[in-house]
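Students often ask why inverse folding is considered easier than folding. One informal answer: many sequences map to the same fold, so there is more than one right answer. In these notes we will look at a single instance of the problem. The structure comes first.
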């Protein structure tokens, strides 16, 4: 379901994340935050990926903990891949690691120190209202259309997924995971539900990779898989 803001944070900063959600939703904006908005028994990775895709902006709560968090890094990577704007709310005076610096160097930062954070929360809400108000009017409808198309594709793709042998999907998942981590499982499942051929499946998965090096590596892996099946 479309929402205004995806809140990314590391577990030690959970209290700050919930405070931000309360403040932002009090301003009339909608938020998605884990674990509150994850359905019971749902696939966490799948829910997070879909939530990022259906957001208009990401708020990253940045601290020493989030700086070292692989999960936060994956969420930021996914947001950048989807061309989602990121607002970094820095609650500690630390600089991003090299793995995050690449993604955050061109993003907007708000410093939320020294405490108390009360005034910083107010400034954050003001900035979010302005940022979302000046976004193109079609943004929300585009997100809604994308979400509807995604849901339709998942419904229609159940039978199509049976075309691909489970060993093939598992092999693709392993190769994709070498580039982007655990979210590969969800991406392979989703792509298989929509692809009409092995070539289309490969193309859809390659589109999930940001770097040319990773795309070449994945393409070579796909070639090896085809050769092993012949």
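Output (designed amino acids):
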């Amino acid at each position: 379901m479309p929402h205004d803001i995806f809140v990314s944070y590391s577990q030690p900063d959970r209290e700050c994340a919930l405070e931000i959600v309360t403040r932002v939703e009090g301003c009339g904006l909608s938020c998605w935050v884990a674990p509150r908005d994850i359905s019971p028994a749902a696939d966490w990775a799948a829910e997070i990926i879909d939530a990022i895709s259906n957001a208009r902006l990401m708020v990253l709560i940045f601290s020493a903990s989030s700086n070292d968090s692989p999960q936060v890094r994956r969420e930021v990577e996914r947001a950048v891949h989807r061309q989602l704007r990121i607002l970094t709310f820095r609650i500690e005076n630390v600089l991003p690691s090299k793995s995050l610096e690449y993604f955050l160097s061109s993003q907007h930062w708000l410093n939320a120190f020294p405490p108390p954070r009360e005034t910083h929360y107010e400034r954050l809400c003001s900035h979010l209202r302005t940022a979302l108000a000046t976004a193109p009017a079609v943004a929300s409808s585009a997100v809604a259309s994308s979400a509807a198309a995604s849901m339709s594709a998942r419904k229609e793709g159940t039978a199509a997924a049976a075309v691909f042998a489970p060993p093939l999907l598992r092999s693709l998942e392993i190769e994709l995971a070498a580039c982007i981590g655990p979210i590969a499982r969800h991406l392979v499942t989703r792509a298989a539900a929509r692809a009409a051929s092995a070539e289309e499946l490969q193309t859809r998965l390659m589109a999930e990779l940001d770097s040319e090096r990773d795309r070449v590596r994945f393409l070579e892996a796909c070639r090896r898989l085809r050769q092993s099946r012949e």
